[in-house]
Amino acid sequence: MSIREGEICVSNFKTSKGHEPLDTIRRTVIALTAAGALLAVAGQAGAQSPQPVSSDPAVVTQEREKTMKSMGDAMKKISAYVKNEGGTIDGVREGAATIQQASHKIVPSLFPADTGIGKVKDSEAKPEIWKQWPQFQQAAQKLESTSAELVTVAATDDRAAIAKQFGQVGQSCGGCHDNFRQKKE
User: I want to staple 98 with a disulfide (CB 3.0 to 4.6 A). Which of 74, 110, 124, 172 is the partner?
Assistant: First the structure.
């Protein structure tokens, strides 16, 4: 075999430790891939465990109320479309996206301990949230999944399918409100 000027021959070359360069490259790529996978998993674990929006319970409660109001406003937009009362498909899509984004913030960033009734002025969050935490998490996850499906259905422009899925989202909202919210008087 002859090597022309500018070409590199690595097949007969060995490093000072006796490894062939391709083995060294392959080992480096494997190590970097494994490190990247570990970082990705660590990043996802952090994303699934958000911190409260603030260490101040009053600020958390205000953010919670703001988020819930945004979801209520979004529900009104979707309802107007479903009922043929002037709503638009763009309003449905915007509303569905708002609900889906907000639903990801609910547990645990908007409901840390010590932000319920009797702990924070004007809170509507019943103590049952923290006494029945697994059930609350399950209810919040149901809202996440039903709102994600609403986003998907909204892309179809199928008013009947949107209405059906909107009902599912409404049931998810009601399931939490009925069990875990004490409305202000």
Answer: 74
Rounded Cα–Cα distance for residues 55 and 15 (Å): 55
Q: Is residue 103 part of a domain?
A: yes
The amino acid at 162: I
Separation of first and last alpha carbons in the chain: 91
8 A C-beta contact, residue 149 and residue 170: no
3-class secondary structure, 125: strand
Q: How far apart are CA 112 and CA 130, in angstroms?
A: 9
Residues contacting residue 52 through CB under 8 Å, at least 6 positions apart: 60, 108, 109, 110, 112
What band does 2 get if pLDDT is binned at 50, 70 and 90?
low
Q: What is this structure's pTM?
A: 0.70
- Contact yes or no for 139/172 (Cβ under 8 A): yes
Cβ atoms within 10 Å of 136's Cβ, excluding its own: 22
> Do 63 and 54 contact (CB within 8 A), yes or no?
yes
Instruction: For residue 124, give its domain range.
Output: 57-180
Question: In this predicted model, what pLDDT tens digit does every residue of 12-40 receive, in sequence order?
Answer: 555 566 656 555 555 554 544 444 444 44
Q: Total domain count for the chain? A: 2
